[in-house]
Amino acid sequence: MADHEHPTEYPPEYPTALGASSLKTITLLGQDLAEDVMGEVSFGELAFWLATQRRPAPGEVRVFEAVLAALADHGFTPTAIVTRLTYLSAPDSVQGALAAGLLGGGSRFLGVTEDCGLFLHDVLSSVDGELPVDDAGWDELALATVRARRQAKKLIPGLGHHVHKEGDPRTPRLLRIAEEENLFGPHLALFAAIGRVHPRVLGRTLPLNGAGVCGAALADLGLPLPLLRAFALLARTAGLIGQLAEELRRPVGNEIFLSVDLNNRPIAPQPDTNGGSHG
Q: What distances in angstroms separate CA 29 from CA 20, 101, 131, 136, 215, one per listed residue?
């Protein structure tokens, strides 16, 4: 008998702890959405709760929302520019403009948050026995980590910044907030130690950047590691909405477009000379 003659069997129920609706109520995370969540739970708290399915403590909310604030907007970055230019091209598609900006969140912008959190977690997971209990112990682990990365000719995620070469102002602030809330965990401890010891190996001092410290903080909060970049994108969504709002008030998208379009310079074709495949 042909496959299409066998109807697919579906389970009778699809359990979810997230949103569910009945005739008169909406539940979310086991709460009555209208009565228990709306006006009672901040958006940052709700985002944390949705991702972990546990209600965060106030201190956790403060650290989490500090991360969101740190990553929301950094000016005319590629993600902001492409959002404005997409809106210029398709003003009828706000969702397209936002999506264009979010799609640019990768290894150079926003992805560092994820890369750093995963890197630190891998180092911590490789430790035999107990983790360090003081700065000296963390420095020893950090020193071994930096030396191993240099020997492997690999960069350290979260180390260095193209603008804040003398120190990213977000980093010490987030470290202080985590300390104040007793949420300065092993990921932040290792990251801070890397900041202290790396000059002894690299021969120069680089700043611990804000995206990296955000990844360490999110990992210490116990948020799902595969979703670390998603939280950076959540923050950047708010920033891109701000970019669009400013584009409505003070548009620059057309100027950016024309600055390229009116200054292009035709040149002769340049064939590939690197021995690439041509079919």
A: 9, 30, 34, 43, 25
